[in-house]
Amino acid sequence: MIFAGIDAGSRTIKVVLYDDNGCRVVASGIKDQGVRQVDLAKAVFDEVTEKAGIERKNVGRIVATGYGRTAIDFANTTITEITCHACGVHHWMPDARTVVDIGGQDSKLLRLEPDGRVRDFVMNDRCAAGTGRFLEVVAERLGVRVGDLGALAQMATNACAISSMCVVFAETEIIGLLASGETPENIVAGVQASITSRIASMAGRSVAEPVVFTGGVALIPGMDKALESALGRKVAVCSEPQLTGALGAAILAARGD
Amino acid sequence: MNTEPLQITIAEWDQRFVEMQREGFFQPEYGGQLSRHLSDGDSRLAKLRYDNSPSSLNLWNFLLTEEDRLQKYKQEGRKIVGAMKDLGTVPVMAYSLPNVTAFYPDGAWWIPCVMELNSSVLAVADSLGIDESFCPVRAMLGAFVNKAHFPPPDLLVCSVGATCDDFSAIAQRLNGLGYPILWWEIPHRRMAGRDEETVILPGGFKCSREQVRFVEIELGRVKKAIEEIAGDEITDSRLNDGIGIANRVRDVLRELRRLVFTARLAPLPSLELLIAEMFAIHFCSDRKEAFNILSNLLVEVRKRVSEGKGYFGLDAVKVFWVNPVADLRVMNLLEDCGGRICGTDYLFCHALDEIPVGVPPMEALAMMALADPMTGSTGDRATRICNDINLFGAEAVIVSRIPGASHCALEGAIIAERVSSELQLPVVELEVPPLTDSIMPSLSTRISALVETALSCRGKRRVR
Q1: The whole model's pTM is what?
Q2: DSSP-based three-state secondary structure for A45
Q3: Which residue is closest to B449 within chain A, CA to CA?
């Protein structure tokens, strides 16, 4: 039977169709978020089911997750992104003990039991400094696409120290660095280090391995290395990191959770 | 009239109040429709959901009329003592005299929690240079300056030392504004040395006999000052009576907590229990009525438990809550997310313990003051929390923080780590500012995730 997971994140809406017989992803889709979340979610869902050649009536259950989960009125139930990310990561990497998810608006660190259940979790709740939003602000300021930040960072010779704990102040700091002749490459590498050091501070002392990196920010080249350096642990990027939450939601839909 | 436990809005309370009147329910002097407090500026009340029992209505009305009572007492010529920071000790002493009332000006931090921005207390504190980077107790400065919330006390006393640095700074600022304060010192609680006698304090903490003697002397100075403004003597006999009455209030609260935390169905929502617990510190300026209200609430809770009635279903996850919240809506949110309260440490749990009897009364109060969680190490506090979690059977823990309150920020991580490593329970830290409306989805996600995590642990335990 086919089940669906919808992850209504702050930046994008993701849909995954999951076949519980083969334990496999049948189809998936992603669209940028907008004002009318539920319409967007329906549109992505329709697109994905059409692509897979599956009629709506043949989709067993739908679980919505993510920041906008409660708006998805055609879902059967909602489950938080913490539980869904854990489940999605466990599907791809059953050995994972720590999950770092850096999304557009928040970041979280999950500690998992050997069977994939969440043991506990921490989330940033102060500002955008440890999130993908920081990268967007920097990309805008430097006039490059977010997707190109990784390539820039890899050319850095000496990452800048970004001392501000706040994205708005950090932006001012970046303007100052540019004015003083610092290269965009070094600035981007500094921002990556700043984001990951926030994650490390959130993680505290106990970070069990293997550590798996998920969420949209995991797609940006160099972020995994920055995270490895901040945590002092090897970090593996999850398969299709943007879809982990939606996949977990679909798997939980299949389980009847 | 529906008597099933039900959480209702303030508007629904108005309808119910009319029904209660029709049925002849007695209303005390401070009673009336809950919505009348909205016109006093307590606009936050409109966003809460309340227990529908008449006992709970009295609880709220009593709490929300404390300012009126204090003004009335002042006009009647009673002496008003403003006790600061000790949380539960000085009022016991003050109430031992018939013409003295005590209250906590630091409780003004609560004003924005019910009045949102309708009160200017925070704006006044801002104008004095004490901005939001400081503990919300800064609201106290505004309340002193605008004189709108309590009458000027005849005596201001404040414990200092091993209490709270934020608070000391703010109280010193108040002192600088021209309010004389009698400072009394509370030392950091420590274990007895090799040649010292150990004293076991209420709640199980230990300290040296020397420290108890020191605090007794310090409290003696406070006693003398109260006697001077009252023109009356606080005899041991009066103090013993006062301790006896305080202990009766504490007995009722302990039983109320036990029933709420351990009943199969929660007989009372977390919000009303939080309000009830606060009565232990200051009695809302009327010891006798505070006792009556809590006793009636206990009767209601016992009745619900015996009839198997309650809230939130049998599956609700039992959550232990550490630190008070600045926005009461979050207590409702806990239950919306599938939790129920099962143990609390709002930083004044020592005020729920029995004041020692069978020892000289001033010594008993000194022991009480030293039992304050804030006077000892965070490790001590974490030990007590872990013991209470085991006692009540909580499945998950929320450690809340109030922005600017350094105690919450500095202790939270230590408590969370200890609970997690010692009891293997899921813990989440939440920052709860006075107005959470814009961050409700984020708070909801955290609490829901904690509930989901606890439920998955429960499933695992069943499998085992």
Answers
A1: 0.92
A2: helix
A3: A80
